[in-house]
Specification:
By secondary structure, this protein is mainly α. Helices cover 74% and strands 0% of the residues. Helix 2 crosses helix 5 and helix 5 runs parallel beside helix 8.
């Protein structure tokens, strides 16, 4: 779609979403100054569920899951709680900038998981080269960074954030 066809509302929404996404690492670091990692995860999910419920209510979308969906919802809830909890614990022990770069490796892992789990979504030679270059770029930035505010550039915190990106 050409830029000239985008409405002002679409552009404003895109800028708002990207601004919120870009501030994610800062918000995590700030929240960890006030709350432990798992409480931060709980608060994050609580705010999200209120926003989703309000949006669904406003749009008239029913939120009650079917009986057959409960098992999957519980499983996803546990999985996401672990992922966000591991990320928060990692952010406690690394800098926000390094954590943000590590979280940006998520598309690499999404491509790998899709190759394993999604029929027809295969890693071609070109995709493998692209993933390697992306991973190498993240590694170069991280390995060239020194300690920031007492946080080690590469260590347990960075490893946990990286693990979280892989989940």
């Amino acid at each position: 779609m050409p830029w000239s066809k985008l409405s002002l509302g679409t552009v404003v929404l895109a800028v708002a979403v990207h601004s919120l996404w870009g501030g994610n690492a800062v918000a995590i670091k700030l929240s960890l100054e006030a709350f432990p990692p798992m409480w931060t995860a709980f608060l994050r999910f609580s705010i999200a569920i209120v926003c989703v419920a309000l949006w669904a209510g406003f749009r008239g979308i029913p939120m009650r899951p079917k009986r057959s969906e409960w098992w999957w919802l519980v499983l996803l809830g546990v999985f996401f709680s672990i992922q966000i909890g591991v990320m928060n614990i990692g952010f406690q022990h690394t800098s926000g900038s390094i954590g943000s770069i590590l979280m940006a490796t998520n598309p690499i892992f999404a491509a790998l998981w899709a190759h394993l789990l999604v029929a027809g979504d295969r890693l071609t030679r070109q995709r493998i080269i692209g993933l390697f270059v992306a991973f190498l770029g993240a590694a170069v930035v991280i390995l060239q960074s020194g300690p920031i505010d007492g946080a080690t550039a590469v260590g347990v915190g960075s490893g946990l954030v990286f693990l979280s990106a892989a989940l």
